[in-house]
Amino acid sequence: MSRLKAIIRHEFRLMAANKTFVVLTILGPFLILAVTVLPGLLSMNPKALSGGEPIAVSGADAGLASALGSASAFQGRSIQITGTDERSLADARKLVLSGKLAALVLLPPGWENTGASLYTKTGTDAALYGAIGGVVDSHAREVRIQRSGVDPVLAGELTRRIGVSIIKLGSGDTEEAGGEADFVQTLFTAMSFVMLVYMTTLLYGQMIGRSVVTEKTSKTVEIMLSSVSPRELMFGKILGLGLAGLLQYGVWVALALVLSKAVLPLLGMAAPPAVAPGNLAWLVVFFVLAFFLYASLYAALGAAAEDEQHLGQLAWPVLMFLIIPLVMISSFVSNPGSPLSVILSLFPMTSPIVMLIRVLIAPPPFWQLALCIGLLVISVYGAAAAAARIFRVGILMGGKRATLREMLKWLRVH
Amino acid sequence: MLSVNGVVKTYETVRAVDGLSFEARAGQIFGLIGPNGAGKSTTIRMIMNVIAPDEGTIRFDGKAFSESMKARIGYLPEERGLNRKVRVIDTLVYLGVLKGMEPVAAKARAEAWLERFELSGWKNEKVETLSKGMAQKVQFIGSVVHDPDLVLFDEPFSGLDPVSQDLLLDAVLDLKRKGKTVLFSTHVMEQAERLCDNILLVRKGSELVSGSLADLKSRFGSNSVQLEFDGDASFVDALPCVEAVRSLPRWIEATIRSGHSSDELFSAVAGRLGIRRFQLMEPTLHAIFVRLVESDENCAEGGAYHV
Question: Among A219, A396, B241, B271, which is most exposed with the fewest C-beta within 10 angstroms?
Fold first, then answer.
């Protein structure tokens, strides 16, 4: 057995026995379950999303009460009519505060012209407030029309909404009727994929960095280097962990495929369109590229660091590049073709995550995809070569805190 | 087997190793001896190519160090460090495989060594469960499991109980018997005295004295004889070969006058006293070291002794 192979095997085994790894591998499928099944389930049963607390209305006429009661957005919530006197209102406010009422809608005299108020405890259930507001608003319109003496049929025809349907164009001139639900599902899938790549890249990168710095401080590295070269040690670690990561993604992808191709059709549900085999393949490709890039960087930083704390300080700039795309994710999702998205989907430090988002939302031009992967491969190669040099010098350097500037100097050591 | 020539290593402003030269031959135990901070570990790490010397050369059978030689060398660093989360037997097999062994062979050899060090019961335990002494024995096994031709032990005995020390001592002597080259460092002179064929005494990075232990002892041989006897030894004081005497009723220590030998004293006392013990007092390595350090400090620029 070659020495490199022995190190890869050893590191792979250590990783496969690692608790975090096992937990993540097991919990990963649940995350995928959430991506594939939950959106469908939720659209079938909105009650699961919202609580069932009733809504109190004060000062409404019978027409509005029944309109509210039949509005679909708060199906399952009952409507309580409350008196308009001070005491009833005070009681209702208390109930809202204690959480027994979802909201109190207060309609003062003349509300159809002057407006109404809605009292809630949290102020964050925008969907519910929007729905109530919509019903109240349209009812006010109806009341005003009636009073003006305009023919209600004519008024209805004049104020009818026509609706704009959303159609997603695919390559090959396919048309896909979509709606808000599809968009939400795609967004949900994209977010989950991005979180997976971000989490695993960060986790494995830091694991490599910590593993190197621990071996360095515990002097295990001297024993290792009395048998193997620094290059073998570093690449053995990266490849061993990378293999474990691939195994993990293999498990996840297989599960996602089984779920979307076999289990969901049996249940009569369709998998979200974004969980397609092609997209799963992209997920693996971008994980592999991100992993090798960040693993090399972390290996070099681990070798240069004096202890774990020092590693944390040195790793900050690297971590930033991993976090930036995560913070700006909504901008990439809504504008996947914007100049900012394009630049960050080509820049190697951020491209695995940003390009993955773009691929999932709207396929980018082929040349951009090719350029992105080409740049990433070159960067991985360059980072590994540079890391090998920093590793060789840094791994045996003890008792001195290396700065990033010093590490750049080590690059020139032959 | 191993020859070191004028190696120098400077850290910042300190010359940790300042022009050391020596040779360790196959089938011999070579001791690198000196107080803490004398540059022993730095020297061994340079031999192991863990750090590069600033000057000087290190040759193995006349050849410079190369990656492929690592398989023939065993190394026990001064600071012990094994992955705490890995089982003992897996650790040893891994170390063996890294030296180019087949896993099966490495396992068999590791088990034999564990048996020898009375650690068989621990082979499936994780390293973190071992006591410090046990971990050290495991690491010792790790450095010899691949049957290397040259072994470098940095302070192999430190922190071991007397029984373990003897086990290790036997193991080292076995290696010598098998024709291996053993180089070890220690600051405990007594251990060196029991084991070494050749030694190099180091102080502040430079050589104080080197050579075979036997030659050193006679070179620095003290000129005193201890005598235990029955009878009246008052005449000894007046003997021409004796310069001074410390005497107790049945014990004297006589200092031999220079130009005379202890044989003269023996023939003079034989027959006149009932001799129970007649011992030529060899200086201990410790005594030699102390003497050299003192004379070194007296004549600051004095060169090293060679025997």
Answer: B271
Q: Which of B24, B22, B26 is nearest to B5 (CA)?
A: B22
Same domain, A157 and A190: no
Encode pLDDT of A170-208 as tens digits: 655 566 655 556 666 777 778 888 888 998 899 899 999
Does A218 lie at the interface with B, CB-CB under 8 angstroms? yes
Chain B residue numbers with beta carbons less than 8 Å from the beta carbon of A228 are 70, 98
Q: Count of residues for chain A?
A: 414
The domain of A33 spans 3-41+178-410
Q: pLDDT-based confidence at A43, cuts 50/70/90?
A: low
Quote the radius of gyration of chain B (alpha carbons, Å): 24
Same domain, A31 and A147: no
Domain ranges within chain B, ordered by starting residue: 2-209, 223-280
Which of A111, A137, A164 is the endpoint of a domain? A164
Domain-embedded: residue A191:
yes
Q: Are A16 and A145 part of one and the same domain?
A: no
In CATH terms, B223-280 corresponds, of 3.30.70, 3.40.50, 1.20.120, 1.10.8, to 3.30.70
Q: Are residue A339 and residue A209 in the same domain, yes or no? A: yes
Report the greatest alpha carbon distance in chain B: 73
Identify whether residues A28 and A84 lie together within a single domain: no
Q: Return the higher-pLDDT residue of B182 and B85.
A: B182
Residue B272 CB partners (closer than 8 Å, separation 6+): B231, B235
CB contact under 8 A, A219 and B79: yes
Cα distance from B73 to chain A (closest Cα, Å)? 8
Say yes or no to pLDDT of B306 above 60: no
What are A106's strand-pairing partners?
Answer: A58, A117
Q: What share of chain B is helix, strand, coil (3-state, %, to 5)?
A: 35, 30, 30
Residues 6+ apart with CB under 8 A from A376: A289, A293, A348, A351, A352
Angle between helices A180-217 and A277-304 (to 10 degrees): 30
Contacts of A369 (CB under 8 A, 6+ apart): A355, A359
A199 touching chain B per CB within 8 A = no
pLDDT digits (tens, 9 = 90+) for A236-245: 999 999 999 9
Q: What is the CATH number of the domain that holds A78?
A: 3.40.190
Task: Write down the pTM of the prediction.
Answer: 0.75
**Residue B302: pLDDT band with limits 50, 70, 90:** very low
Total number of domains in chain A? 2
State the Cα–Cα distance between residues A201 and A79, nearest whole angstrom.
49
Question: Are residues A243 and A328 both part of a single domain?
Answer: yes
CB within 8 Å: A227 and B80: no
**Distance between A228 CA and the closest CA of chain B, angstroms:** 7
- Report how far residue B42's alpha carbon sits from residue B226's, in angstroms, rounded to the nearest whole number: 41
